[in-house]
């Protein structure tokens, strides 16, 4: 392990660089509300977070990242546009992966500005790319917004679209749902048997547990409506599958996605945003001709991103976490803005660096 003083020194240098780019230094509490995080990420977060209980404040978590508390702070009264930077420890359980530490320093850079989102995306990427340039890392980009647009454009019920959006970050579950909604696989036999009963409550016992009878009846009605809905057109499912297979350098990926958009018009806006981002990246000096774009990138570990996503990794060590990563999270600002009367949110993008891992790589610890 590298000397902690060296890691803190590197973190300070990285943060100072973002300050020079106009970012204000912010601090975030080490303990954050578990309720807010669980509402955003779901109960799966408990497997990755350290929790405790406070008699006055309820369940608390050691911060798993800075983005949520920084967004909360900004939505409560930050000026717009705004830039922030920070440095401090984050805490995540790593019970099955010894290569990943459960406490590490994180340095971040966030931009809240809706005037030119693609230019902001490009700036965050370029500044982090510059910071890790000596390490020879592989950069990969993606865009969750294209897949979201494809789901929103399906000819199916709103309930099915909500289910697919909710599981965008769980690829296996997403595919299971898509196949079932398209009629490729039948619904579970137990569900079919349940819905065929004239009165599912005929032999039910007294009400117990957390769900009331009214809630169960509402769920049954939703299941009946889903069973009666027409299947998602096979052609649309095949187009989504074509999107998920896109893995090219950015110019070729853009060309392929434009071809798909001819038959799946709802993604056209997201694809053109990708084109504008490509131009903005090039203007920042990024070699987009060699920059990899992967349509599925970020789907397993970037739950709150809803647009541009990126990461810089050690190509020869896929077991290591990304040295730098980030993306766009407009929807998160809307979600957290509701609590303070700002449901419109504000376009926002950011990225983080792991100074400890940077120092370790420089020392050849992961050769």
TrEMBL record:
Presence of keyword Hydrolase: no
Summary of subunit composition and partner proteins: Homodimer.
Secretion signal, residue range per the UniProt entry: none
Keywords (A to Z) from UniProt: Glycosyltransferase, Transferase
Entry protein name: Histidine--tRNA ligase
MF terms in GO: glycosyltransferase activity
PANTHER family: HISTIDINE--TRNA LIGASE, MITOCHONDRIAL-RELATED, HISTIDYL-TRNA SYNTHETASE
Domain Aminoacyl-transfer RNA synthetases class-II family profile positions: 18-316
Domain of life: Bacteria
One Pfam family matching this protein: tRNA-synt_His
């Amino acid at each position: 392990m590298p000397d902690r003083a060296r890691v803190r020194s590197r973190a300070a240098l990285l943060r100072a660089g973002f300050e020079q780019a106009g970012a204000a230094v912010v601090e975030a509490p080490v303990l954050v509300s578990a309720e807010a995080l669980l509402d955003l990420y779901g109960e799966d977060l408990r497997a990755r977070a350290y929790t405790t209980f406070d008699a006055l404040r309820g369940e608390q978590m050691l911060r798993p990242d800075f983005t949520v508390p920084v967004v909360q702070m900004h939505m409560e009264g930050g000026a717009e546009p705004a830039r922030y930077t920070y440095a401090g420890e984050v805490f995540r359980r790593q019970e099955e992966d010894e290569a990943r530490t459960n406490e590490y320093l994180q340095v971040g850079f966030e931009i809240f500005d809706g005037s030119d989102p693609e230019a902001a995306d490009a700036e965050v990427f370029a500044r982090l790319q510059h910071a890790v340039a000596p390490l020879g890392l592989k950069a990969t980009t993606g865009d969750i917004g294209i897949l979201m647009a494809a789901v929103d454009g399906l000819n199916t019920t709103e309930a099915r679209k909500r289910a697919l959006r909710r599981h965008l970050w769980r690829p296996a579950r997403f595919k299971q749902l898509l196949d079932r909604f398209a009629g490729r696989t039948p619904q579970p036999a137990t569900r079919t048997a349940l819905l065929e009963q004239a009165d599912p409550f005929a032999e039910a016992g007294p009400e117990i547990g957390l769900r009331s009878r009214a809630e169960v009846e509402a769920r049954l009605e939703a299941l009946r409506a889903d069973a009666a809905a027409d299947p998602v057109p096979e052609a649309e499912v095949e187009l989504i599958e074509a999107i998920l297979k896109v893995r090219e350098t950015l110019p070729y990926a853009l060309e392929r996605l434009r071809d798909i958009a001819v038959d799946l018009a709802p993604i056209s806006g997201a694809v053109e945003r990708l084109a504008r981002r490509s131009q903005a990246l090039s203007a920042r000096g990024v070699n987009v001709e060699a920059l990899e774009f992967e349509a599925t990138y970020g789907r397993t570990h970037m739950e709150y991103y809803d647009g541009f996503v990126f990461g810089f990794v050690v190509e020869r060590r896929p077991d290591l976490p990304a040295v730098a990563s980030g993306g766009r999270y407009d929807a998160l600002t809307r979600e957290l803005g509701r609590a303070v009367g700002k449901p419109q949110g504000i376009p926002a993008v950011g990225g983080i660096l792991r100074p400890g891992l940077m120092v370790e790589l420089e020392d050849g610890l992961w050769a």
